[in-house]
Amino acid sequence: MSFSLAGNKITIEQGSTYSLTLNWTDSNGDTIPLVTDTWTARMKGREDKESSTEVFSWTSGSELILADTNPNIRIEVEATATAAYTAPLLGWYDLELVDATSNVYKIISGVLQIDREVTR
User: Fold this and answer.
1) Is residue 33 reached through a cis peptide bond, with omega within 30 degrees of 0 on the bond before it?
2) What is the CATH number of domain 6-115?
3) Could you report the per-residue pLDDT of 65-97, keeping only the tens digit for each?
């Protein structure tokens, strides 16, 4: 199972809608069907990996949309939500999928950047 995002860095523009599509695949490159009644997703951002304070906490059925086809993971965050994020910020994030038997798969992790909104 694999996924790649150049540098694994995501940048969120404060006050703008954030959108990203991903496709999780098996070793043959085939899209893994993420049937919503058997899989859940969670994604968190923190200023520091050791911090107990979250910059954001996204879940399936809300900001994280799972599907059976390519792309099988879609992230959609409204501008009103990103407007509340502290900026500028450089931190960390990860995205995990959990299957029906509670196995956890870290799909991707990396640097989180939140850029300050100028037009507000």
Assistant:
1) no
2) 2.60.40
3) 999 999 999 999 999 999 999 999 999 999 999
